[in-house]
Amino acid sequence: MTALTLWRNAKLATLQGSTPWGWIEDGTLLTQGDRIVWVGEASALPAAQAKQVEDEYDLGGALLTPGLVDCHTHLVYGGQRAAEFEQRLQGASYEAIARAGGGIRSTVAATRAASDEELLASATRRAHSLMADGVTTVEIKSGYGLSEWDEARCLRVARTLGQTLPLSVRTTYLGAHALPPEFAGRTDDYVDAVCTWMPALHAQGLVDAVDAFCENIGFTPAQTRRVFEAARALGLPVKLHAEQLSDQGGAALAAEFGALSCDHLEHLSESGIRAMHTAGTVAVLLPGAYYFLRDTTLPPIDALRAHGVPMAIATDHNPGTSPGLSLLLMLNMACTLFRLTPEEALRGATVHGARALGLHDRGTLAAGQRADFCVWDLEHPNELAYWFGHNPCRRTIAGGLERTL
Ligand code: NIG
Ligand code: FE
After folding, report:
1. Which residues make up the binding site for Zn(2+) (predicted)?
2. Residue 2 pLDDT more than 90?
3. Distance (Å) from CA 242 to ligand 2 centroid
4. Is 81 annotated for ligand binding?
5. Mutate which of 94, 177, 245, 295 for ligand 1 pocket (most atoms within 8 A of beta carbon)
6. Which of 56, 134, 152, 194 is exposed most, by the fewest CB atoms within 10 A?
7. ipTM reported for the complex, 2 dp
8. Is 320 close to ligand 1, i.e. is its CB under 6 Å away?
């Protein structure tokens, strides 16, 4: 039997139970291998388990939270789009740039031109930035390859990150992200191709979920439905970039397919919210994209809250709409821009982020959960959303092991 490790003298924000933050003032955690086996007040530690402890760490009264989950990123791509940022500052809209062949498609060209090694090296650097902030699980979408070959390359790089870094990686196939130039004027043919590639990508173990960009500059609800039907035929869960720039009814469509999450949601309607609630779909809020596009339409936070739709927070890291690599900064923005409470923001980047990926084994500090947790140089968890441009992450334990970067 693997030995037990004791982590004592910590303030725990377990996010478990009904008390604020799931707070435990003088907390102790026991781990065995990659799992948490016991969490509670130090005084309640069962004597039988205390006897089996082989390693013991005194955390000096530090704050502990679950490891952070970044449930929406586009981490694998070539090039960057700083010139497009300048164009937007001079008045060009994101949609106009996309319609003129820039935007996502310019990143597709740069991604196709990059070697596997270059894609892996740049994605590794980005993953390191996320990990420095305490991220222990990350979702990575394809969507800048847009051919079977290039989508497979990008998904393979994402899988490699999960194998080479102390980081859990979930991959999402986003073939329906934009129309590649070789399919110009043939969007339906491209949707057919996206669906045709899916079984082979899945057979190679490259796909954990399927996503699409349902938007007037992306794919219609009817086209999105076809992508979702192909996913369903393979038993793959779906997610959706929904109602970011306009209300396409994407959220209701995704909910019909039992989507894990609908993401962005600035233009989400009341009926979309109801459908998400009924389906148990998580609302993934992306304040970095809202901020960087200088958007002014807020997602309907109060209505999501009123309907009890769980809200997750993610970086949406990508070169066009959210080039940021700090999930903690997104917690701050979720509070300042979207008026989430600091506790909602932390739950959004832990337990609700995990649910948005269909993961129930992480996101809280509780027996049976993965031993993914962060030690912070902070007094109280509300400070996670308070400071910005400053990294208070002192240590990260991923799968029961101390992570060194
Ligand atoms: O999540 N909206 C679509 N996809 C990305 C942006 C991709 C890009 O501009 O390169 C997003 O915001
Ligand atoms: Fe995105």
Report:
1. 72, 74, 241, 316
2. no
3. 10
4. yes
5. 177
6. 56
7. 0.97
8. yes
